[in-house]
Amino acid sequence: MQSFTLLVFLVFLFVVFRSLKSKALEWQQIDSRLVFFFLIVNPLTLLFAFTFRPEILVMSLGFFSFLLLKGKHTNAQLILSAALAGTALLVHLNGLMFIVAGFALLLPFMAFIAASFFTELKKTGRPVLQAIGIVLILFQISSAAIGLGETFGRRESTAAILAKTLSGFPGNGEKVLVPYRFVFNQLPVKNLVSFKTMEYHQVAKGEKFTKDEFLELAVRLGIHYLVVPPEMLSHNKMYPWMNEEFKDIEKEGSFVKLKIETGANVLLRVE
User: Fold this and answer.
1) What is the average pLDDT score of the chain?
2) What is the DSSP letter of 177?
3) What are 266's strand-pairing partners?
4) Is the dihedral of CA 84, 90, 91, 95 positive or negative?
5) CA distance 91 to 102
6) Does 177 reside within a domain?
7) 265: region left, alpha or beta (phi > 0 left; psi from -120 to 50 alpha)
8) Tens digit of each residue's pLDDT (9 = 90 or more) over 24-79
């Protein structure tokens, strides 16, 4: 499967090269050698080009979508651009940024497009479709408003919540197993290990870890504590043993802090 990612990356490089040489774009004066230099010398680019992960595919789909929106574009190009951005979202949630960017780019034309659409429906005598269109627009506006309200209405920032969660652990450098989102804010403060580490070992093993296998691996990796997020307390398909382990505390709806009792394969609650 790594060959598929490499193939996508090579197609991406080819499209970048062609776009730099295109007379229709404003950046043809940029030296293509400089662009390829920065792409190739980036170690993460090369790493992910030979790794079966979605980053390269998401990057490529987003760039292709962007190219279709540059300059003059037909309706077919707009539809294809939207399809590529939507596919990027299906590949990885980070692909949402291309949908948002495309929406922002086309925002000045939205009112004109909507007016033309509803005028055409009115001329052709289709009141049902007109009503459905209005309902969908109102639903989209209200959903966006609710989402913004929830985002800006939080009492405490995510970074503050994560810092508070880790505050109960000793500051002696002992490793703490945490969800991936902790790494972005708290890695300079604590010695963190992501659950992704356990996931990779489990995939290499070819079957799900039992509780004992999970804790034995954690001890071998020097992990002394772990933080289990609310979404992993129940219906956990990655680590099924957690469903039974945390069935009495899953309703708390908060992060659970635990200490691994070395040698006994026991998890003790840390308050």
Assistant:
1) 79
2) E
3) 261
4) positive
5) 17
6) yes
7) left
8) 455 555 666 777 788 888 888 888 888 888 889 999 999 998 888 776 767 788 88
Please state, as a whole number, how many other Cβ atoms lie within 10 Å of the Cβ of residue 57. Answer: 21
Looking at the structure of the chain, the number of domains it has is 1
From 60-69, 133-142, 225-234, the region with the lowest mean pLDDT: 133-142
> Rounded to an integer, what distance in angstroms lies between the CA atom of residue 96 and that of residue 101?
9
Q: CA-to-CA distance for 120 and 126, rounded, in angstroms?
A: 9
Encode pLDDT of 82-105 as tens digits.
899 889 989 988 888 888 887 777
Q: Is residue 195, in this structure, part of any structural domain at all?
A: yes
In a domain, 95, yes or no: no
Task: Give the residue among 40, 38, 32 at the shortest CA–CA distance from 10.
Answer: 40
User: Within the chain, how many helices (H) and strands (E) appear?
Assistant: 12, 5
Banded model confidence at residue 186, pLDDT cuts 50, 70, 90: low
| Residue ranges making up the domain that contains 252 | 158-269
Q: What is residue 11's predicted lDDT score, i.e. its pLDDT? A: 92
Residue 230: burial class (beta carbons within 10 Å; 0-12, 13-18, 19+): middle
Residue 141 · residue 104 · CB < 8 Å: no
pTM over 0.85: no
Contact call for residues 199 and 238 (beta carbons, < 8 A): yes
CA distance 75 to 80: 9
